[in-house]
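User: Predict the full complex structure for these chains.
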Amino acid sequence: QVQLVESGGGVVQPGRSLKLSCEASGFTFSSYAINWVRQAQGKGLEWLAVISSDGRNEHYADSVKGRFTISRDSSKNTVFLQMRSLRAEDSAVYYCAKDSSAFGDYDFVHWGHGTLVTVSS
Amino acid sequence: DIQMTHSPSSLSASVGDTVTISCRASQNIRTYLNWYQKKPGEAPKLLISDASSLQNGVPSRFSGSGSGTDFTLTIRSLQLEDFATYYCQQRSATPPTFGPGTKVEIK
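Assistant: Here is the predicted structure of the two-chain assembly.
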């Protein structure tokens, strides 16, 4: 069955960096785009980024463009989210979500359990 | 970006009730509209895709309708496990955007 497991969350100071991982299994990793979505405490869901199945195309939300970078390693069936210049408002649970196609159809059927990022001094 | 709004933002209901949640898009998204259920500490669950297509395994008491800018999620005969927050999401354009959610609470 499809499994997505996020890791890498934790407490980080404002202005610092953090890299999240999303390890995938149970499907043909090279055939599907992967997205990152977050939810701050008491807030709604916010889409952040998508990377195509071949890793050649990416899109970002304006709120993270220029600070976050999504990438994937097909040898490890893993997608990464490199987060830089972190702010308090980046504190949230970060989910990876498998797309329904090779690039950005944005049907999020399968999700990971999430990893908590707290930006605080 | 396409803005999504919900109404109401929250509602109180009893087991067995029928509840209706509305979602509006700031522009025509045809039927590129998904509905998710979110419970605290759990990942979101896709209930309905393309405005009205029930996902495998989702109880038939859930239904969706609408097209263009106005959409509805209906839950008939509300069960205890249905108390959660519900989000609509448009996938007509990048970035995909979610509504602010409707919290369904126990009366």
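Chain A has a mean pLDDT of 97.
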